[in-house]
Amino acid sequence: MAEVDQLIAEWRTVPEVADQLGMDVAKVRQLLRERKLLAVRTDGVLKVPAAFVQADAVLKGLPGTLTVLADAGFSDDEALRWLFTPDQSLPGSPVQALVENRGTEVKRRAQALAL
Questions:
Q1: pLDDT at site 33
Q2: I need a surface site. Which of 83, 96, 98, 114 has the fewest CB within 10 A?
Q3: HEC profile for 68-96?
Q4: Which residues have CB under 8 Å from 15's CB, separation 6+?
């Protein structure tokens, strides 16, 4: 887990994500169950990478990318690690590319992992 903590600089708790998205905590937990968001538990607190929520919405392209990674057999920790690890071919990290609306490139790379 320390490796993921080193890659991800900023986190939000589930209530903070709920506030940012304008929904209740139960709905955020549903997004987590449906793998439209990912979270990790640190010190007993469930936390979501801050980059996964942009303005008042889930980061565009994230749910589809998470599905592709899950289909490729990635655990939540492995998916987080992949999303936040810099990739010279993008350039930047996959999550950075999603923030910059380059989701097609990210999905293409994620699909290649499943081959």
A1: 96
A2: 114
A3: HHHHCCCCHHHHHHHHHCCCCCCCCCHHH
A4: 25
